[in-house]
Write a structure and sequence with these properties.
The complex is a heterodimer. Chain A is α/β, with parallel strands linked by helices. Chain A is built from five helices and seven strands, in the order H-E-E-E-H-E-H-E-H-E-E-H. Classes of the chains: A alpha/beta, B alpha+beta. The interface between A and B is medium-sized, with 27 and 33 residues.
């Protein structure tokens, strides 16, 4: 409540101030880049619970996928290759399924045979936190837990862009 | 200071900060605009020739202008920046103070001591149970579902105590139900519940979910302890 009151006061003051000529405020962009990655804890395919914040200090690639998104089928093997190469260098790849049908998501994940952990979000809370609009979506989180890169969808050549960013973040 | 006065004070301070922020944000733009404005033309000395007049105007300021009391000093911009920097620092301090006040007020408003209820989780030994998740229901309404990672479970086994829930309850009788899931003896899936009916009086209520080993039965035991 106090925050709301403060926000009201601040907004009122800002409105008055901005009404003065020559002062303008930039519009906020709906993106997570530059912000701290919202934390989550999810059950993985092997039954373990994994929390994003426990990977602080490592570069984390989070891939949100759904079995009904055709691009996921192309992207997951590419991410598996990246994981196999860069895991030892400090990269963590997490696949997060946003499918509501847990059983079919499990079947899909097993069929893809990827080596990185696959987590299941059946509540849609994480999708909301990460402003998911289209599947698949991939984000890169740096060692301090800040989102540094996001890619919506997947097309040929995107995996190269991931590699460039991953190398850059691993060097930091 | 009562709550109303604090609310008004916080709103006023927010408004003042916003105005100050806007003024400071606009300052560089105004400074640039002032720099770009052409200075008023100095009157040319009547005795000088037109050619010499132009050279004098571009090469050196007139002696009269430099000596006049209204002219800006050479170090004036530096002094301005210093003042601006001091203002920014003072604003930063104000923001920190305000943030602290807000936090205290938020705690008081959201979790007033007389309606507060806090639930903690602890584990003792844990040889017969590997904790996976805890679901809490208060008066038949789910208030928390917490998944434990291996590290968190290990921290509990090492003696850590986790505050799993903090909320508010009215005075009177309430029922707390806790469901524990995990791996029991011989790696079997294990789900157990524990229930406690408690009286919430005036003042904070502290409850502890305790997971212990019952050695005689080789089974885990789940209890809810009411810390009066």
């Amino acid at each position: 409540m106090s925050k709301t009151l403060f926000a009201c006061g601040f907004a009122l003051g800002a409105l008055l101030a901005v009404a003065a000529p020559g002062v303008a405020t930039p519009a906020a962009l709906p993106t997570l880049i530059g912000k701290e990655a919202p934390d989550f804890v999810l059950k993985s395919m092997d039954g373990k619970n994994l929390r994003l914040s426990e990977y602080r200090g490592q570069v984390v690639l989070v891939n949100f996928w759904a079995r009904w998104a055709g691009d996921s089928r192309q992207e997951m093997p590419a991410l598996d290759r990246i994981n196999a190469t860069y895991h030892r260098a400090g990269l963590v790849v997490l696949g997060v399924s946003v499918d509501e049908d847990l059983r079919r998501a499990h079947e899909f994940a097993e069929a893809m045979k990827v080596g990185y952990p696959i987590l299941f979000d059946t509540t849609s809370n994480i999708g909301r936190d990460y402003l998911l609009q289209k599947m698949p979506m991939t984000i890169l989180v740096d060692r301090s837990g800040v989102v540094r890169y996001a890619n919506i969808g997947f097309k040929r050549g995107d995996d190269r862009a991931y590699l460039d960013k991953i190398r850059e973040l691993l060097r930091e | 200071m009562n709550s109303k006065q604090r609310i008004v004070s916080i709103m006023l301070r927010g408004g003042i900060l916003a105005c100050a922020w806007a003024v400071i944000a606009a300052a560089p733009a105004l400074a640039v605009a002032a720099d770009n404005t052409p200075p008023p033309a100095a009157p040319a000395p009547a005795a000088a020739a037109p050619g010499a007049d132009a050279v004098a105007a571009t090469s050196a300021p007139p002696a009269g202008a430099a000596a006049s009391p209204g002219a800006p000093l050479p170090d004036a911009p530096a002094a301005d920046f210093k003042t601006l920097d001091q203002e920014v620092q003072s604003m930063k301090k104000d923001v920190i103070d305000l943030n602290k006040d807000l936090f205290v007020l938020q705690e008081e408003l959201l979790f007033p001591a007389n309606t507060q209820v806090a639930v903690y989780v602890s584990m003792d030994v844990g040889a017969f149970f590997a904790l996976d998740s805890v679901t809490l229901k208060i008066d038949n309404k789910e208030v928390k579902n917490y998944l434990y990672t291996a590290r968190e479970a290990e921290a509990l086994l090492k003696g850590g105590v986790q505050e799993i829930y903090l909320g508010n309850l009215k005075v009177g009788k309430h029922e707390l139900v806790a469901f524990f899931t995990g791996k029991g003896p011989v790696e079997r899936e294990y789900k157990r519940g524990a229930t406690l009916t408690f009286d919430k009086g005036v003042g904070a209520k502290y409850l502890e979910l305790k997971i212990t080993d019952r050695v005689t039965k080789h089974q885990p035991e789940f209890k809810i302890k009411d810390w009066d």
